[in-house]
Amino acid sequence: MRLKYALPAAAALALATPLAAQVEVAALLGVTGSSSLVNDQIVQEIELKPALAPTFFLSASLPVATRLRASLDLSYGSSSADLTESGNASVDIGSIGVLTATAALSGPLVSRLGWRLSLGILQYMPSEDTGVFRDGVPLAALFGAGLDWRQPLSERWTGLIGLRYDFHLFTTPVLETAGFSGSQQVSRFGVALGAGWVP
Amino acid sequence: MTARRTLSLALLAAAALSCSEATAPTRTSNYEWRLFVDSDTLSFHWPASMLPVTIWVEDSLGMPAQVEQAVAAWKRVFLYGEYDAVLVSDSSSADIVVRVAPAPVKLMTTAQRLNTVFPGCEGATDIDTASTRYQLQLPVRMYLTPRYAPPYDLTECFRVVARHELGHSLGLFQHSSDNGDIMFPQPEVTEFSARDINTAQVLSHWPANLIPTR
Fold it and tell me: Is the complex ipTM more than 0.85?
């Protein structure tokens, strides 16, 4: 009876041990800047744009081919949403969180520099359901690219500096109802510092 | 998969995502909202520093609920949080005072009174620009009153007139000349028209030359 469970468990362990040894978990902290979410014209030019957002990145990766790793990444950042009118100081109209979940491929480029490309989803999470966010914000498809600088610190630890770029389209039901056609192209740039750990 | 192939696929995905561009709507359809006093053209909207606007409503004929609904309806007109208001229990510090009573004889020589008549009820709002003409004297005073005694159902009537009068307190200091707008002096519609919405949005970004004061 015991053998019935012991064998599959041993087999799973035998497979999992080398796999676990190759998994890397990385955490980075940085800032993300964004282009405008809305450009409008009411008497004057109006721009709605998130301020620089402190952002936390979490990633788990494993090798899938020679010089190629696949990863699942999460990031979350939060900042104020600033409304700027031509010639006037910006007005903070509440905070907005941004959560992303992506699948990425990465590999070495030159020396300790590596590339990464990702596809996933992005969700805006405004603090208040008012204005353009009143009726919610739909999930957006996200395309991302980045560079990682890897500095080995020990057998299990690696220092990481990451540069991130991603792109998505932004619209909301309120904007569509108000007569906005199409979606706003939004680019985000981030820089982060952290570490990777191999269990 | 080579890095070059991966990069090519990524660039294709980016190109597919970037093939649209948002275009803002035009807001050319609106009506005159500014107050003309002699040769002065006066424009007002609540400054961001005064939001939320405080409103005291006399607790009669279910008016607090009607005004609360009107506030919610006007908030939905704006895209960037330009307007917010809350009901308060102390009339002495409120920015807007709503009485469920006929408008009294106008004593303030500096006030403009905007009257509204709807079947079943009526309203009035006094816009007092003080003697300086660059100040809006607070509180803005609104009057809502039934024209018929209960049991006449005034719910719909008060809903429309509350929206109309609250529109005046936002800065819509004139009536529309189009009976399709809720700011027409004898409203024939129960919802905001595109012109009502455009006008409110434009006024909220128009440089204001009336400063609220007490």
Answer: no
